Amino acid sequence: MLTDVLSYLLKALAWQGVFVTAWVAIALTYIAINWKEERYLPEVRPGRLKPVTAGAVAWLIASATGILLTEQTALPVVSQLTPVITVALAAGLYYAAYKLSPPPVMDGRKDLTPAEHAELQAAEPQ
């Protein structure tokens, strides 16, 4: 074998770690912003969603920056701090995107058809 397979696997895992870190930061930011809003639910119906949202753009920018910081070799300390930088960047970008263009929500009491409402009530733990 002429190639170092493990180095490719480690690089792929590092990139995957950056993507997951940015995604978790965005999910936690969404939860932190909306933890008191019980009435409004995230919109999940396919016909009412945009193909690309501001949150997805924030995720891609934070992930690309994290990958660039992971791969750079000039500053080893920055490479070690990449997860922290990625979390801060993803959370900050998503918070700004959320305030500028809030994601679509549905009112659990108004936007649901009677059948959807009954289905949600049946699935709710007693």
Written account of the structure:
- The protein is mainly α and 126 residues long.
- It has helices at residues 5-34, 54-71, 76-80, 82-100, 114-123, and strands spanning 40-42, 105-107.
- It has one domain.
- The chain has a two-stranded antiparallel sheet with strand order 1-2.
Task: Reconstruct the topology from this structure.
Elements lengths: L4 H30 L5 E3 L11 H18 L4 H5 L1 H19 L4 E3 L6 H10 L3
Antiparallel strand pairs: 1-2
Radius of gyration: 19 Å
Number of domains: 1
Helix-residue proportion: 55-70%
Query: So how many helices?
Result: 5
> Within the largest sheet, what's the order of strands?
1-2
Shape: elongated
The tally of beta strands, per DSSP, is 2
Q: Tell me the β content.
A: under 5%
N- and C-termini, Cα separation: 60 Å
Spans with pLDDT under 50 lasting ≥5 residues?
Answer: none
Described by strand count, sense and barrel closure, the largest sheet is: 2 strands, antiparallel
Question: Structural class from helices and strands?
Answer: mainly alpha
Q: What is the helix/strand order?
A: HEHHHEH
Q: Report the mean per-residue pLDDT as an integer.
A: 85
Key features of this structure:
single chain, 126 residues, mainly alpha, elongated, two-stranded antiparallel sheet, 5% strand
What does this entry show, briefly?
The chain has 126 residues and is mostly helical. The protein is 65% helix and 5% strand.
